[in-house]
Amino acid sequence: MLRRFLIFVVLAFLPVAAPSMAQDYPSRPVRVIVPFGAGGPTDVFTRAISDELRKSLNQPFVMENRPGAGTIIGSEAAAKSPPDGYTLLMVSATQTTTETLVPNKPFKLMRDFVPVAALINSELVMVVHPSVPASNVKEFIALAKSKPGALNYASSGVGSNYHMAGELFKNLTGTNILHVPYKGSAGARNDIISGQVEMMFDSVPTMAQMIQAGRVRALGTSGKVRSAILPDVPTLSEAGVKGYEATIWVGVMAPTGTPQPVVDLLNREINKILARPEVKDAWEKQGAVPMLMTPDEFGAHVQSEIEKWAKIIKANAIAAE
To answer: For position 255, what pLDDT does the model report?
Structure first.
């Protein structure tokens, strides 16, 4: 009889506990871990969304840049944090490649985190130095096939978005192009402009001015549709590399065990912000398209990216530095 009574008491309180947690959240500042240095796309859009969440939820969302080890340092710190909604992790395509490149790391993205919300999706642009005798993608492929291993392309490092974009291009076109990894985008960008390397994938907003100035030549963009910033540049799929898609995207996850009402609240608030016309317009001018997804939809997106890049990494025998 006593046991039945205790079970009744516990069950009676369960339905009201979860909603009350969401109603009280957040009651103090929320830490937002960014496993990248300042200035990159993840950092920029995290600052923007954190400021908007501060306004709508009346608590600071405090960014903490924790770069290093290919996003592992910051991601591990988030994984070890209490699952109470007061620590969030910013994620991008880079973390989905790290899942395969570093299998023995102390956490797994889809095991130790739950999806909260997507933020943005942004195309890359494939550029070549003006000295490269190719005015379009088909000519570049023909050039690369005529000189296997002679052409090279730069990236910001092994496993980066730019590296994976280049490897996907190689796989879909059957070309042999040498990868030249740099320690960050700045060095790679300087060398494509100076002609030390022939080709590079880079973010559209970063390269747009260089393209317009004629310092590099744009051959194609990496999304499903043309970039609003570079409307005259075809997508790589349009240009003959059928099925090509490799984009920068940014989203939010939280440690596994974070209460679902908190996850749902954050998802609703973020999607409200992303749906505002002034936010959409401002971000699209920076080459970023807001991604409005439920937590489940974002989780499926992250899982699909892990699987997609795992195939490329294994097919090309890519190893972490």
So the answer is: 98
